[in-house]
Amino acid sequence: MTLYLLRRLFLLAFVLLALSLLAFSLAYMFPGDILQNLTGLRYIAPEQVAVLTTEYRLDQGYLAQYLAYLQRILSGNWGLSFASQQPLLQEIGVLLPATLELAAYALLISFFAGIPLGIIAAVKPEGTLSKIISALAITGYSIPVFWWALLLIMVFSLGLGWLPTAGRIGVLYEVKHITGFMLVDILLSDSAHRNDALLNALRHMLLPTLVLATYPTTVMVRFTKDSMLDVWEQSYIKTARAKGLNRLQVLYRHGLRNALLPVIRQIGLQFSTLITLAMITEVIFSWPGIGRWLIDSIYQRNYPAIQAGLLVISTLVISVNMLTEILHRLFNPLARKR
User: Fold this and answer.
1) How far apart are CA 15 and CA 10, in angstroms?
2) What's the rounded Cα separation, in Å, for the pair 212 and 145?
3) What is the 3-state secondary structure (H, E, C) of the chain?
4) Which of 41, 109, 174, 237 is the most exposed place for a label (fewest CB within 10 A)?
5) pLDDT 10s digits, 35-59
6) Can you give the pLDDT at residue 240?
């Protein structure tokens, strides 16, 4: 297991190094002045050019420039945003928790709703309930995210007036930024209106979370059902049933754990999907996350922000996928023998 972890860490380091090389190359691929693309400065005075050229090693070879880029990334000097002229790392630190919060709650919904529905559908695969669950899963899988989001807004926000259409919390509430996670910051605050702010934040969060959770939930339902049906045909399950155990006992004692092992890998894959879908969801619901910020940066041709956003999101996705692979091997004895 230790050797496996070392190999995975080495692979992670190699992938991240390749990712940093890609992000560094974007500064040369983007149009405009290379010095502006690297620093994020919109206007560079003539007397600054020589100093910045030396600092960024533009008077040397590409290898020296790349090493200087790595040094700046590791030290936290990611440059400035063209749009706001604020440090990129500072902006990302404010925006990233909003995206992670939305993705985390959507992943929890897909996990706690998709797995039980998949198990129920697998118990009697030819039953009416199983067919209804499978039909709903296929429908949810086929619905475009933007259309589903607009439909929910029309029904629950514009039609019934139950939920807000956009934003993370109402303008009447001021929540001090502590962790960046809205619900956590509200609970940590000492405001007299904390309960009202918490309820308001939950109302704002409900629609985007449901929209974002729809696709991974349907995938989890179908994957759990297929995994359960595959385990159900194994010889040890037939032996347990031959000993007189009923279907529920066999499911709880023998089938469930083995069927859920492949689902662990799906968590990492669905997290990658959630980060991608979050960009669309954040734009529709005006959610102040890194996905909306990155799309705005593309429209604004904010090249340093695009560079930084690519680096952060890709690193996050790669790290989560690597972590789920390690957890799958940790909990699966058969995988440890390979």
Assistant:
1) 9
2) 8
3) CHHHHHHHHHHHHHHHHHHHHHHHHHHHHCCCCHHHHHHCCCCCCHHHHHHHHHHCCCCCCHHHHHHHHHHHHHHCCCCECCCCCCEHHHHHHHHHHHHHHHHHHHHHHHHHHHHHHHHHHHHCCCCHHHHHHHHHHHHHHHCCHHHHHHHHHHHHHHHCCCCCCCCCCCCCCCCCCCCCCHHHHHHHCCCCCHHHHHHHHHHHHHHHHHHHHHHHHHHHHHHHHHHHHHHHCCHHHHHHHHCCCCHHHHHHHHHHHHHHHHHHHHHHHHHHHHHHHHHHHHHHCCCCCHHHHHHHHHHHCCHHHHHHHHHHHHHHHHHHHHHHHHHHHHHCHHHHCC
4) 174
5) 888 888 888 888 788 888 888 888 8
6) 64
